[in-house]
């Protein structure tokens, strides 16, 4: 990118007001136009090419104790991203390098080069996979199933939110694991068809009237990979085999609710001598190289395919976050910022 084509100003999406317990609204965020900051010694200017949209961002808007502090009012919305160095004042990075970081929902970022991770696309690979399969999404599925879920040959693995970002990778890992039987749960027929194509043995729509009966018929569970919490978790608890493992990955059914959906059947953890463990993927960075190698091998063997729900322009971030709670996405949601760096706001 020539210096002449770097704009003087760019757009960012900042937190305007915290939503009450409930969905984000039209006044949760606002768009600001700010001047591009030229980097100082040791810094770089990055043109952000992709930004992430994740359910956990809903939690970052609430002023409550969590694994990260809430996004401050007036601050750029926190989000992972992938971008390209356009000006470098640091020897470790040069113009054109692909770099990832929590740039936030904005078109440009200026800051210390040492914060960034340089990414090199492997032969035959795709840049977008750093936002999904080889990013935190893929690592969540990998760490969740193997480190937390202690996945074993022959396990019956049940995955909720199975057609989403983490769920689609977890489903394919479990399908590829020797002799595992995989039950995948999602919220539409289109998603069930998709999960069948990924190799899931049983697929269930949790919105079906007879979902409870259908779920019961799938039998006892060794590993429940829980992306949604609430009622589905409660049903899974009733079906545990002795020494089973619940991977508490997410609880999207409660992120927009005033009160979390109650879960009653926790006594099963005792009677079935089972574990339920929460985790945050970023605590497991020591497993990421191993995870990327594992997932890369599955890709080469034709057993893993990552899908993306790609939207265009910075302005799509807010609607994408809203729509995630209506299940509009199949695969990992990312927003591609338009080629000239200007959003379609
Ligand atoms: N622990 C960690 O480190 C970590 C890391 C990444 C993500 N997570 C968590 O993992 C979960 C999945 O994240 P993701 O990025 O892969 O999102 P995602 O699955 O791509 O998107 C969310 C999906 O959740 C489903 N959903 C929405 N509301 C629901 C409800 N009330 N009940 C059941 N399903 C509902 C929707 O699909 P349907 O059409 O099927 O309803 C939607 O597409 C989230 O809970 C997230 O917070 C945890």
TrEMBL record:
MF (Gene Ontology): oxidoreductase activity, acting on the CH-CH group of donors, NAD or NADP as acceptor
Domain Enoyl reductase (ER): 22-335
Keywords in alphabetical order: Oxidoreductase
SMART domains for the chain: PKS_ER (SM00829)
Matches recorded under InterPro entries: ADH-like_C (IPR013149), ADH_N_2 (IPR041694), ER (IPR020843), GroES-like_sf (IPR011032), MDR_fam (IPR045010), NAD(P)-bd_dom_sf (IPR036291)
Name the record gives this protein: Cytoplasmic protein
Source organism of the structure: Kwoniella heveanensis BCC8398
Lineage of producing organism: Eukaryota, Fungi, Dikarya, Basidiomycota, Agaricomycotina
């Amino acid at each position: 990118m020539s210096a002449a084509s770097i704009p003087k100003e760019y757009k960012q999406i900042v937190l305007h007001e915290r939503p009450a317990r409930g969905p984000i609204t039209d006044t949760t965020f606002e768009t600001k136009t700010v001047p591009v900051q030229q980097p100082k010694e040791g810094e770089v200017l990055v043109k952000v090419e992709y930004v992430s949209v994740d359910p956990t961002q809903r939690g970052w808007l609430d002023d409550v104790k969590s694994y990260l502090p809430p996004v401050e009012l007036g601050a750029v919305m926190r989000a992972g991203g992938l971008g390209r160095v356009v000006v470098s004042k640091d020897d470790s990075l040069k113009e054109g390098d692909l770099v990832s970081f929590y740039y936030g929902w904005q078109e440009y970022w200026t800051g210390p080069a040492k914060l960034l991770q340089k990414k090199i696309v492997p032969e035959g690979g795709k840049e977008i996979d750093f936002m999904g399969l080889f990013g935190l999404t893929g690592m969540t599925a990998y760490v969740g199933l193997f480190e937390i879920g202690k996945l074993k040959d022959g396990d019956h693995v049940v995955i909720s939110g199975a057609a989403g970002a983490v769920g689609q990778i977890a489903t394919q890992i479990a399908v590829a694991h020797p002799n595992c039987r995989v039950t995948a749960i999602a919220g539409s027929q289109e998603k069930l068809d998709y999960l069948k194509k990924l190799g899931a043995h049983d697929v269930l729509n949790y919105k079906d009237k007879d979902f409870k009966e259908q779920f019961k018929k799938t039998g006892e569970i060794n590993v429940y990979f829980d992306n949604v919490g609430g009622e589905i978790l409660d049903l899974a608890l009733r079906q545990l085999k002795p020494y089973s493992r619940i991977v508490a990955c997410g609880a999207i059914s409660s992120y927009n609710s005033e009160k979390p959906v109650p879960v009653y059947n926790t006594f099963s953890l005792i009677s079935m001598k089972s574990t339920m463990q929460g985790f945050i993927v970023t605590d497991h960075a020591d497993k990421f190289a191993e995870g990327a190698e594992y997932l890369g091998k599955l890709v080469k063997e034709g057993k893993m395919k990552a899908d993306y729900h790609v939207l265009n322009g910075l302005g799509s971030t807010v609607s994408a976050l809203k729509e995630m709670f209506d299940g509009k996405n199949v695969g990992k949601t990312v927003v591609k910022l338009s080629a000239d760096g200007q959003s379609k706001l």
